[in-house]
Design goal:
Length: 511
């Protein structure tokens, strides 16, 4: 069995018979005579001729071996699409310039690469390695015979034989190649509300083999994930999606770390979940609930009288409020007239991948699914925002947005240079002037936010931008009442574009 193991494949046996016996015929003749004598003395149990042949070749090799072939014990790591070098050398150091150097996989022929007669031989090379291999010859005279493989593929992973042969002997070693791929940087997004917190999702693709995924807090401690999904594409690369629940005042600073275990390299992204993203419970609602429970037994005449008094007070307050709004609105109309009504369309290159735009680019809605869109510098990647195509640097301009019954939304204007990547603070300091509907509250996005005294949210909002005065006003298009005005000088003398944010049903730009 040791004889057959050293000879390996039938092709190697043929090489042995061809090269060894012709060059050292005298030694082989002596061996054959000895074997013939042994064969004659045991006629009752003759050895088959092929065993005699193999044994002769083995003895010849043992007598004439002058070197060993050495490779690394640990697997060699290679990155997909890049090149790698499989090291191999002779010991003791001697020139391999006139030897045969053969790299092969499980079979002797066809081979991965062959060097013989002082040059590379390609007749019989495996098709998948054609044009991708090179024997590095700089150290041939010192016994170094490493193989370079270009454009590493998944199929290159596995065991490789480094086989070296001279006129009288041959040796080989086996080494292993491990293939790995580094994927994209993790992309963290805030998805929706769940279990009293925020569901945060981390996604990445292009990994090989399947990577390790960890959520960490600000101090580096591991956080338990809510779910983890792994997929494998047609290119055999792995994609990963993992999610967890973030509670307010607990782990609002967190990072997603994805690690390749073969290369011992990782990629990490971090995010901070701001307080406005968390569900809010208004203190007045809690107090009202307690009062209703305590006073439940006092329903009667007293409650009725208080109810009438409240209605009268509310009617007087409404009248005063309407008068103030009308006065303010008339003043604004006089100050901005004439106004150019513009036909605004949405810029798809800026839309967050979860936002779906209509074909006419006049409406947008939150689709919930991550679309396969180009990753360009103009696109918002964390906030569900989109900009209008039109930009304004002077004059007075007006357009309307139909908000309908959208759950969460914001309407306004933004600097053309507003930040698009990562978490964005919705405030004038960051280049955004807008009003929003958030958890039952109508607010102006000042810093801090300003609660707007409206009993119900408008279904259609008119945005009036005065670039010359540096201000923007929001009007209830249903009754032409003023909602809120950012004062003159609030908006800098820069290019300004329409801006929308939505999490729910669609917003539509109207003529």
């Amino acid at each position: 069995m040791r004889i057959l193991e050293n000879l390996g494949t039938p092709e190697r046996a043929q090489n042995c018979s061809k090269d060894y016996f012709q060059d050292v015929s005298d030694q082989v003749t002596v061996k054959m005579e000895v074997l013939s004598f042994c064969h004659g003395s045991r006629a009752s149990s003759p050895l088959p001729s092929f065993i005699v042949f193999f044994f002769s070749c083995y003895v010849h090799k043992m007598e004439s071996a002058k070197f060993t072939v050495i490779g690394p014990r640990d697997p060699v790591a290679a990155i997909l699409g890049q090149e790698t070098v499989l090291p191999c050398h002779l010991s003791p150091s001697m020139s391999a310039a006139n030897m045969e150097v053969r790299w092969f996989r499980s079979q002797f022929v066809p081979f991965v690469h062959l060097y013989r007669g002082g040059k590379d031989q390609y007749d019989g090379q495996m098709p998948e390695y054609q044009g991708r291999t090179e024997l590095l010859k700089a150290g041939l005279t010192d016994g170094n015979v490493p193989l370079r493989i270009l454009n590493i593929r998944h199929s290159d992973e596995g065991k490789y034989h480094c086989f070296v042969q001279d006129d009288t002997s041959y040796e080989e070693t086996i080494l292993e190649l491990r293939v790995a791929g580094l994927g994209s940087a993790p992309l963290i997004s805030v998805e929706d509300h769940k279990d009293g917190g925020i569901r945060v999702v981390c996604r990445s693709s292009g990994w090989y083999p399947e990577p390790e995924v960890l959520w960490k807090d600000l101090s580096g401690r591991d956080l338990p994930s809510l779910s983890e999904t792994t997929s494998r594409g047609d290119n055999n690369l792995f994609g990963i999606e993992t999610a967890l629940i973030v509670k307010k005042h607990s782990n609002q600073n967190l990072s997603c770390c994805i690690r390749n275990t073969i290369l011992n390299q990782e990629k990490e992204s971090a995010v901070y979940i701001a307080d406005p993203f968390f569900p809010r419970v208004n203190s007045w609602m809690v107090a009202l609930s307690v009062i209703l429970v305590v006073l439940f037994g006092f329903i009667g005449l007293t409650v009725y009288l208080f109810k009438i008094k409240g209605k009268l007070t509310e009617e007087v307050g409404k009248q005063n409020l309407e008068i103030g709004k009308l006065t303010s609105w008339l003043g604004w109309r006089r100050s901005v007239a004439p106004v150019e009504e513009v036909n605004v369309t949405l810029d798809p290159d800026t839309a967050h991948p979860k936002l779906v735009l209509s074909e006419d680019r006049k409406s947008v809605r939150w689709g919930g699914m991550w679309q396969d869109l180009p990753e360009n510098p103009e696109r918002f990647d964390t906030m569900f925002c989109v900009l209008g195509c039109e930009g304004f640097t002077s004059g007075r301009h007006c357009w309307e947005v139909e908000v309908g019954d959208a759950t969460f939304w914001a309407v306004g204007v933004a600097r053309e240079s507003v930040g698009r990547k990562g978490w964005i603070s919705l405030s004038p300091e960051r280049g955004i002037w807008a009003v929003e509907w958030w958890w039952g509250q109508f607010r102006a996005l000042t810093n801090p936010v300003t609660l707007l005294p409206l009993s119900r949210v408008p279904s259609r909002i008119r945005v009036c931008l005065d670039c010359d005065r540096g201000q923007v006003t929001f009007i209830n298009a249903g009754d032409d009442t003023q909602i809120f005005t950012f004062p003159p000088g609030s908006i800098p003398w820069k290019r300004i574009r329409p801006w929308l944010w939505v999490l729910g049903p669609q917003l539509r730009l109207c003529p």
